[in-house]
Amino acid sequence: MPEQQQWTIAATEQPPQWFIQAVKQHTPASSGIYAAKLLWQRGIKDDQQLTAFINHKAYQPASPFEFGQEMHLAIARLQQAYNAKEKIAIWGDFDADGITATSVLWDGLGQFFKQNTQLIYYIPNRLKESHGLNDQGIDNLAKQNCKLIVTCDTGSTNIEEIIYAKQLGIDVIVTDHHTLPAERPPVAAIINPRYLPREHQLFHLSGVAVAYKLVEALYQSLPNIAKHPLEDLLDLVAVGLIADLVQLSGDCRYLAQLGIQRLQADFQQPAAARRRPGVGRLLELCQKSGDRPTDISFGLGPRINAVSRIQGDASFCVELLTSRDAKRCNELAEVTELANARRKSLQKDVQAQVAQKLTQLDLSTTSVIVLEDAQWPAGVLGLVAGQIAQQTGRPTILLSTEGSGESGVGSGEEDSAPTPYSLLPTPLARGSARSVNSVDLYQLVKDQAHLLHRFGGHPFAAGLSLLVENIPLFAAAINQQLRQSLGSTTLTPTVQADLTVTVADLGKELFLELKLLEPCGMGNPVPKLLIQNCWFENSWHRNQQDWQGKKVQYIKTEFDIRDDSSRSAFPGIWWGHYKDELPIERCDCIAELDYNTFKKRYEIRLIAVRPSVNSALNTRNGLNAPRSLTPLILDWRNYPTPHSLLPTPPLLLEDCPTNWDDLRAWLRRCLMISRSKSGVDNQQQLAIAWSKPNLQPPNQIWLTLVGIAKYLSRTNQLVTRVQLLEKIGISDQTLLVGIKALKDLGFTVKRQDRYLQITWHPSDSPENLADAAVARFLAAVREEQFQRQYFAQVPLSTIVAIASSDNY
């Protein structure tokens, strides 16, 4: 069940006046204050940085030979192949970064090696192969007499496969940006920016940008051969960079700026004159013009990725991006658009099924969501897992057992090297994992490697496969691991706003001012705007249709937003939501300001919405609200309890529960009283009024319990169970575990009427037995504290939803 998001506002420091004036020079039609605040907030704090950030002409890009000896080795091997007329194979990857990287090498190396005879390419099938090199593909290339493989966006950790290729007489040049191997592989060269210092301007290059740097070095080394300018590749570089969500700083930002310019310039040409007719047709199909980074992140990128997710084989995408045959490109673009429509439909279906399964989970005891289904298509699981992780604030792993008889099939995000489980029989589940809240998901998964068949990825995304029978063990272990590492920290979905604006601020001026920050991406996100005390009008929703007019199960709500700053409304959209989900009262919202090329209008894209602060306080306190809207459940946590001002005093729940059953009992009591009354005005309300718990470390609680027990034994005093609970601050159930631990430590606990008598016999304590009992008590305390933390912050909407779903 999705939780209410936690909103945060980015820390803002007023930039000095000289900086505001410097920014204003780049946006003369507006004050420049909003862009100045954002740039200052994001570390741009002097004239030189500002100029290089905004104007690519003032930026000095790095030489491709900054990669040092490895780049020299790569160029020497390519020159050897050129002189000997050897056959070369480009080995790419099936996502947007890998496809564009393959396309850059196909066009770039194609200036030096004849395409289809001297130069070929190979893209693994997403649904049948993993990322990276594999022996079967290498065998295929050996039969075609290839003497050199150039990888892109993959290959760094494929040690065994590189050795195998070498045994067949094939050298390998690796261009990649993923995890480095422990030792340099036996390659002709390996060009990977992770070998560079983190602060280097090339460190964040994606796969396509690394491939571009290799081609750039070859252009410089063989300057009189290429017929087309190197800059012709930049549009493809921009697509791959932005689609791969790398940090757009240094050369990444520079290349993306140049590439978007070329992308837009080519699209503005008549269709018959376009250099890349396939890219142009894709932009037409998604109603974009190529002048915005969002045209890639919401348009081109998802469409290129959809092909391998739906069809497995994405090889034709290279032809789509590089061919000059407009008729052929139109055909391939339509196939791509159909794949994306199918992807949207499948994603929506799986998301609905996952949402249903989530209603059966208690998120108070769930740190990592692990769900499985035999019918889920593996290709869209990563997308859905990402959505669920954002909604719940918890890392999410979705597994499919569809086609589990194929034990050799990878998830598409896995490393190629299997664990010993690869020798075991089927069935296998395979799927994708996505993280949130800075949880290192890759490390979590890696720590359970003994339960997995294959796995791979990075801190925010991973792919894995495992025996179906291991799923319960894996889910329990990874949950326990994350819960222990979090301690008392509670995972909550969060969204951050960068600036506070009014409806009157929205429009062309602000859009052009914020456009100074583009291209946006990792490390420089799209500015999120907080609009307070606003409301919505003229809202309507519809199913989105694909380019052929067929309905796709994807909802978009359109609306006008208003506030007290202006008499005019401003248009907006909310993807994936119905109009009924918009509040009818005043509210706060977080949105992005955008320009709709298709409708030729400025609009906001709604990100999150909630009741306004004033409205929330009124509802929370049950005051100043229409009687008919007064909620059955009042949220008075950490607030004064003004029940004397209400017509009927509410039931007051002041003790923080540790499970839903405790809360359900109070809800049942409240509803039973309500049903015994007549009229809405006499409805019995429940006020949840517990304070945020002040939790002690579990070890300290154990020492307190032992200290009390020793004192009672020494003074021969009696104690009630309630007195113990109040003194130690734990629940009845946890106290029982503690008493068992005391007994194993050598204490005797006897009941006398309402009292407990505790005596100590130190000689009776078997040390190993006591240690195990104490460990169980500490675990019980941690579990209870985890649940108290959850109920201290669980959104009122979740409590109401639980009450509604149980039909009290």
Distance between the termini: 19 Å
What Rg, in angstroms, do the CA atoms define?
A: 31 Å
Oligomer: single chain
**Strands of the biggest beta sheet: in what spatial order?**
3-2-4-5-6
Structural class: alpha/beta
Task: Give the biggest beta sheet.
Answer: 5 strands, parallel
Low-confidence segments, given as residue ranges, are 404-424, 615-630
- Molecular shape: globular
Mean pLDDT: 84
Number of strands: 24
What is the helix fraction of residues, given as a range? 40-55%
Number of helices: 25
Q: What is the beta-strand fraction?
A: 15-25%
Would you write up a description of this structure?
With 808 residues, the protein is α/β, with parallel strands linked by helices. It contains 25 helices and 24 strands. The strands form six sheets. Strands 3-2-4-5-6 form a five-stranded parallel beta sheet, sandwiched between helices. The protein starts with 5 loop residues before the first strand and ends with a helix.
